[in-house]
Design brief:
The chain is of the alpha+beta class. It contains 10 helices and 16 strands. Strands 14-13-12-15-16 form a 5-stranded antiparallel beta sheet. A 4-stranded parallel beta sheet has the order 2-1-6-7, with helices on both faces. Helix 1 packs across helix 9 and helix 2 runs antiparallel to helix 3. 34% of the residues are buried. InterPro entries: ATP-grasp, ATP-grasp_RimK-type, ATP_grasp_subdomain_1, Rimk_N, Rp_bS6_RimK/Lys_biosynth_LsyX.
Amino acid sequence: MRGWIIYKDSATLLKPETYEIKRLLQVAQEENIDLQVYSPDQFDLLVSREDDQSVLIDGEPVSLPDFVLPRMGAGTTYFALAIIRHLERLGVHCFNSSEAIETVKDKLFAQQILAQQNLPTPKTMLVKFPVNIDLVEKQIGFPVVVKTLSGSQGSGVFLSKSRSEFDDLMQLIEATSPKANIILQKFIKSSHGRDLRVLTIGGRVVACMERNSGGANFKANVSAGAKGLSHPITPEIEWLATQTANILNLDMAGIDLLFDEEHFKICEANSSPGFEGLEAAVDVDVAREILHFIRIRLGIFDKKKPVVVEAKKSAAKSQPAATSA
């Protein structure tokens, strides 16, 4: 089985995903999977009838892989998305798809889809300048969470604790970047400094971790210094995470849930979740789970490896036949 990882460090990342890439490459080698890492900058695309020659890497035509793992998430540029779309149309399986990546990259659009399906999400509002602060106070209230439309690892997320603080921030944004796309979300007090990261692969929950900043920061991202602890997977958590991943068509996803008293609200979904903190907190080999899922989805198995089922049958044949009483 042959695969590509498409990855490039993004300015939006607080911490590069070097750990995740190394783990995937390590497990791929152990699983006899030919896995290569390429940056979008290495690609050139030719739109023509000669599809088998339409993808070039470093200026040379290449044979296509069985699958692609885009690992850029919210940092996926138009060019990178065009590469994924092109590969999909040539029959290459991409995990996740270009459509799913583009959907969750837009946090407002993802919230609109989830709300349409009657899933619990924080009340969200799109900012337009000049900002009507009275309307914001009436509909959302203060404190209020301010987010850029696209971002990951907690970057581009702020908490305005008061009306005056929010007014100052909006004036700054309007003065420096009047075309910026900003959304506002209702602050969930019971989730201050903590949330859940739920990892789903192939429509099932693989792991669940509570992220906790200890109150030092209202954000709970491990990449920003929060601690990760294993958290039990309750039926509610499992249902919310799997429903979110399914509705957003995500083969693999990091679903962030906010504590809402005794229940949860869906904060956002990530199409390329980091898993360094998750593997440290939970006894799950995430990289192996990802590659096993892809192997099963594609139906490509290593014939050189012994099949467990056959081994069990052989062992059963070697047992003496049971005699009737």
